[in-house]
Amino acid sequence: MLEDVGAFSYVPKNDLENRAGRLCSLLAGAGVDFAVIIQNVDRFYFTGTMQKGVVIIPVDNDPLVFVEKGFERAEAETPFEIIPVKNDRQVRDILLGRNILPGKAGLELDVLPVNTFERTQRVVGFREYADISEFIRSVRMIKSSYEIDQLRQSGEMLSRVFEAAPKEIREGRTELEIEAVLVAKGRTIGHHGLMRMRGLNQEMVMMTVQAGFTGTVPTFLDAPITGSGVTPAIPQGSSFKRVERGIPVTIDYGGGYNGYITDETRTFVVGELKEIFRKPCETAREIIDETLRYARPGIDSTELFLRAQKMADDRGLADYFMGHGEGQVPFIGHGIGLEINELPILTGRHRRPLEEGMVFAFEPKFVLPGHGAVGIEIDCIVTANGIERLTSSPIDIVCL
Amino acid sequence: MLEDVGAFSYVPKNDLENRAGRLCSLLAGAGVDFAVIIQNVDRFYFTGTMQKGVVIIPVDNDPLVFVEKGFERAEAETPFEIIPVKNDRQVRDILLGRNILPGKAGLELDVLPVNTFERTQRVVGFREYADISEFIRSVRMIKSSYEIDQLRQSGEMLSRVFEAAPKEIREGRTELEIEAVLVAKGRTIGHHGLMRMRGLNQEMVMMTVQAGFTGTVPTFLDAPITGSGVTPAIPQGSSFKRVERGIPVTIDYGGGYNGYITDETRTFVVGELKEIFRKPCETAREIIDETLRYARPGIDSTELFLRAQKMADDRGLADYFMGHGEGQVPFIGHGIGLEINELPILTGRHRRPLEEGMVFAFEPKFVLPGHGAVGIEIDCIVTANGIERLTSSPIDIVCL
User: Fold this and answer.
1) What pLDDT is attached to residue B57?
2) Are A5 and B187 an interchain contact pair (Cβ–Cβ within 8 Å)?
3) Which one of A207, A353, B273, B354 has the fewest CB atoms closer than 10 angstroms to its CB?
């Protein structure tokens, strides 16, 4: 029955086995005997279900899915062994019975709150432990063909929403009005309903529309164009700012299909684009073209940032590249998948060669303080031969 | 300029001083010398700004707002001293210089990830520490008149969205279509854009529409009616299920104004409500009436749950009250404010007398497995004399 009302395509068993296998190789290398997976997205990634409970992945065996609630759904969703429990206090005996305990546990210390960690340590009863969050993030960084297919469907949704944008952008309309109708369009065709970002304080709205100075306000969020929002309590996103003739309107939107998030940005303008924005717009486009030509497996991700930065610099735009002043961010792209801040991060700081199966958003943007922001963001798949775009949406600035 | 594009009403200084003062009394009682506040919502609550950084609240002095990014906004938003820093490594020397260090630190251990905690301990350099999350939650539980005014405006928004609901609910329409247009309505009039829930794995969509069996599917979320959602990756919320004649449609929605979240549910039906749903509908209404008559400061919150449960029991509905089978939840209400899972929790388990200034959602709901769910949810303010509703929306089931 659930299959009739949603996109209930379950994660294929061989994909799940491959994911657990790759994690276990890393665990084995670090002397970790079993992973304790608690965060909901990680649990879904490794088992195919997000129902309530904890997942144990022994280094030499299939994952054990302890389920406290949502048993029926868990059974339909995961091919692995499900162990129904009333709560996590029953986990210990089962692990002892299977000789998984005692042993060194690996945990998601980047997201596990201190109290949750201490409770888990007490009830599961491991003594030694290690942080395996970087292992998990690096396994999740490489997408399977099943995952790329989910991302393509998410990108398809995103493209349909962007196709509807031109007729919604009119002089005098507020950012919020434009956002509301476009987000509704995505949800109607089945957008999964949430935008996920890993870590404490990491939150993001589904779409942000900026129509002028609101796109230039620096705020806490690590993004080049964050928007002012409508309140200091949520200082990001669209506002009541109205569209003006000649001033660019950026729309940054994330598609959401079967858990997989895409993330692209388009720039629109009513009438003729004001002179001041033209060079930044052309440069963003040139950076995209150059990157699509240049990037391929083996190229270091720092190169992508540094070459883009140099192109901005050569055109006298260094001060506006990826934000302005304190709002400038040190990256030009980020991995996407089940969360919007996956690996790789495309920054000048941390070296990481591109690998086949990475999928990332690439977003050259320029912020002209007080005036407005422009930019393009596309999603890219690293293939054996180079870079392939996830969607085929046109990326030129659209004049209305 | 920002004031022109949003609801930028800043938090009054005396409210902020009162909040810090109440926290400091609790800190002093527990021998804690200063609080280290890192979570974004707590930082906003205690300072009025959510810009990037850490907040230190000495037990005997005003909060210090360390800001790494969003300096200009922070200045407009908080009346407290702002200390610009490049990163948290600069905090230690300043605290030493002000004799705040050495001393016992209090931290939000319910939400702080282990890695963040360890980094904070290392760079700030405290040795002794304590968990102050329950202090913070109990301070936030009691709302000021300013906060109640924000909640009323959030409730006003919610009421306007519910007023638009009847003309959107038609036989054959999907849950997603109804949700999309109503959420768009709220966003257009300035909904702040996010729904916040405290803690790891706590996430919730802004609205969920259930039009039949989808309202009866148990899932991981701790709520009586969660919805099936459209994917195992986000197993909650609306789906492609279509509205049927005679089957109740529940709409659970959260208003969002200036950070403050409201949370109400209405039940609608196209045509005549099927017999099986009538007694549950009447009982939900009777539980609301009885609670509004009965509850007042001093009454224990457990009473509210237990009396409602007994009313359901007396009418032969015990098996369907607040969910069915493994989907049954042990509470009938929860505090609301900046997050949707604030104190008090109205459960039969933890005693806590009602106090003036508490604001909570109260949600008697019934789940009839395979058939559908019904229920009402209202937001309540505990006043000196009893309970006042936050909105004046009619709560009877609406027949269309």
Assistant:
1) 98
2) no
3) A353
Whether B262 contacts B389, CB under 8 Å: no
Query: Is there a contact between A220 and B69 if contact means CB atoms under 8 Å apart?
Result: yes
- Provide the shortest C-alpha distance from residue B290 to chain A (in Å): 31
Question: Residues spanned by CATH 3.40.350.10 within chain B?
Answer: 2-139
Report whether A380 contacts A389 (CB < 8 A): yes
Q: Which carries the bigger pLDDT value, residue B246 or residue B9?
A: B246
Average pLDDT, rounded, for chain A: 95
Note the pLDDT tens digit of each residue in B114-151: 999 999 999 999 999 999 999 999 999 999 999 999 99
CA distance A323 to A321: 5
**Closest Cα partner for B231 from A153, A136, A185, A361?**
A153
Q: Which residue of B has its CA nearest to A69?
A: B220
Q: Cα(B183)–Cα(A21) distance, rounded to whole angstroms?
A: 42
B240 neighbors B251 (Cβ within 8 angstroms): no
Average pLDDT score over residue span A274-297: 97
Task: Check B51 against A205: CB less than 8 A apart.
Answer: no
A230 contact residues in B (CB cutoff 8 A) = 5-8, 190, 192-193
pLDDT in tens, B218-242: 888 889 999 999 999 999 999 999 9
Could you give the ipTM of this predicted complex?
0.96
The pTM of the whole model exceeds 0.95: yes
Nearest to B223 by CA among B355, B357, B365, B48: B365
Q: Is A2-139 a domain of CATH 3.40.350.10?
A: yes
Topology of domain A142-399 in CATH is Creatine Amidinohydrolase (3.90.230)
